[in-house]
Amino acid sequence: MDKFLRFLPVIGLLLTFNAAGQISEGGLPPSFLIENEDFFAAAEQLETLKWSGLDLKQLLAEDAANPEQSRFAVPVRETVDVSPEKAGRWLSLPNGDRVWRCAVQVPEALGLLLLFDRLVLPPGSRLFAYAPDRSFVAGAYSEKSCLPSGEFLIGVVPNHTVVLELVVEAHSRQMPQLHLNRIDYVYDPAGLGAQDAPESFGESLGCNININCPLGQNWQTEKRGVARILMIFSNGAGWCSGSLIANTAGTAEPYFLTAHHCQLIGSNPNFNLWRFDFGYEAADCLNPPTEPQRNSILGCQRLAFREETDFMLLKLNPIPAGYNLYFNGWNRTPATNNLVQNSTFIHHPSGDIQKISHDNDPATIFPQAINWGGAFGTSPPNTHWLVIPDQGIYQPGSSGCVLFDQNKRIVGQLHGGNLDPNTCTVSGSWFGRFDLSWDQGSTPNARLREWLDPTGTNPLTQDGYAQPTLLTISGAIRTHWGAPMPNVTVQLSGGSNATTRTDAAGRYTFSNLTPGQSYVVQPWRDTNVVNGVTTADLSMTNRHILAVEALNTPWKIIAADVNGSNSVTTLDLLDARRVILGLAGEFPAVPSWRFFPATTTFSDPAQPFLGGLPEGLLRFNNLQQSVIDADFIGIKVGDVNNNANPGG
After folding, report:
1. Domains located in the chain, CATH noted
2. How many C-beta atoms surround the C-beta of residue 131 within 10 A?
């Protein structure tokens, strides 16, 4: 049996990969535009930083000794430390925009993969990466592309040199943060895909069947839940497949089922940079001449996994509302050899466009242990379904794809199999049993029950459902003089309770909100009371009180009211002086910052207290659509000359 199965790990070893595909807005770098051609031609020569590759023979020998990792790109060994502060060159365009450019190069590389440990792009800033011959452009990446972790990736750019071009708009009051800390270079042509394409488009065997062929006609709903996974590891990357999965509460929690062994293909998986590509398919039964579009989600967290049945449950980052995905149902009925009368699986072999395979015969419970070899261990007897498809096959990259029963419910996920690529024949494929993954693990992080049955109803089956329509409330918080305020605590209450903080651009978001509920959003900060409060503020406030020189905005008048009396008097001067002298660590009745809706207006700006100040919060009753402009203005109490640090 071991001899028969010794090639099984090939299904879990992924031969190609690409790391492009975060949210990208398209467009061209400024240096590509005709109107800027003469300007860039006259600019200082582009700085190119170089790193050396490794010995190709040594790499191939290491790959042969460790086939379970199946890498095709490796990180350069020299330190990578690239930022606008340390490398590259800035120039200013005639329209006032600023552009930073820097080239990175690994001679003889077939392609480059760029990993950043810090990328924060404020509104209006854009980042591009392109080959010097302009044959390939990635981007534009914007603030919407950035991750909460601050990490980022670009690649594979099919060239040994990549130019980074960062654009900062003229009116921007905040500089981007960019730090490139790792460069992987492609040494194996398998990493480039067909015709040097940056994806693995067109790399699967011709005997695979596209999802929009006649075989997939009755699977047009379920396919919307299936995605390929680009997995990033410390020593490379690879492909797997999987599916969104329903829960008994019918919510939009983006749970995603795939194979446990997918995380073993490389070392130290970085789940923050795993990418999930939905809708990556041909328009019809024919393979398309050019690569189709996809809907991608970047980043996830691992919730649960178990080696015995080879399952792994992930939770993806929030799904955009317009993706129109599907959460596939499941069947956890205790398995028998008659339970699954025929079966189907939808997958991404070799990271290619979506394919479908089908077995007309019943799936059987495999009664023997399965030795997968190397790092993949051995599966106990009776833990897997055995399926031999009559139509379609599978390949590396199909790992983790879910097995559907005759009722289109998930009953397992692909662990491995035996495929002869020369004849396109399958002698066996093994899927970990969903019913055993349900509750045989000893803790929630080793089973599915708690995640997929949050209501505790304990059903044997769950139907799939379309991506629920959920809403978001988002906005920006700025000082009254327009500076973004990072790290402000923002509280949500009402239909949901949550707390978040503003990012470097002063923005916040509450996602996955149920329509029809009422919500309240309120910012809060009460730190560093002396921030921006000096004797100069006392002097300006005193002149206002004496009617010598009035404070010229309602916001400054509100800032001068440090005791919260809705008036500005000499008592405010006394309380502010106590703070300056360190005799008091807080203001008497108000926090160090006060917040008001950005839509606030005053009938008489010279008397903002008339009729009382507005609430420092926003109310949304019976929320029926997402809100993107729930903005606030921040007032630093005691600071009337606008010199407080917005971040403190």
Report:
1. 19-196 (no CATH), 214-466 (2.40.10.120), 470-648 (2.60.40.10)
2. 19
DSSP readout, 296-317?
EEE-EEEEEEETTTTEEEEEES
Closest CA relative to residue 473, chosen from 448, 444, 493: 493
Q: Please give the pLDDT value at position 299.
A: 87
DSSP at 449: H
Say which DSSP state 552 is in: S
Residue 4 scores a pLDDT above 50: no
Amino acid identity of 271? Answer: F
Token match 């490398």: residue? 87
pLDDT at 19: 30
Residues 311, 273, 221: CA angle, nearest 5 degrees: 55
Round to whole Å and give the CA distance between 66 and 77: 20
Show the tokens assigned to 182. 């790792």
User: Would you tell me how many other CB atoms lie within 10 Å of the CB of residue 72?
Assistant: 24
Span 226-250, average pLDDT: 90
**Whole-angstrom distance, CA of residue 8 vs CA of residue 101:** 47
Q: Residue 463 and residue 545: Cα distance in Å, rounded?
A: 69
* Chain CA centroid to CA 566, Å: 45
More reliable by pLDDT, 135 or 402: 402
Q: How many residues does the structure list for the chain?
A: 648
What angle do helix axes 535-545 and 570-580 make, rounded to 10 degrees? 180
Cα 182 to Cα 127, 164, 377: the distances in Å are 17, 14, 31
pLDDT tens digit sequence for 348-362: 988 889 999 999 999
Residue 427 backbone phi and psi in degrees, to 5: -100, -5
Q: CA-CA distance, 109 to 203, in Å (whole number)?
A: 20
pLDDT band at 516 (very low <50, low <70, confident <90, very high): confident
Q: Which two tokens stand for residue 84?
A: 């606008």
Alpha helix positions (H), 6-146: 37-42, 56-65
Cα–Cα nearest to 555, from 467, 644, 630, 463:
644
Q: What's the pTM value of the predicted model, to 2 decimals?
A: 0.70
Question: In the predicted model, what is the mean pLDDT of residues 472-494?
Answer: 94
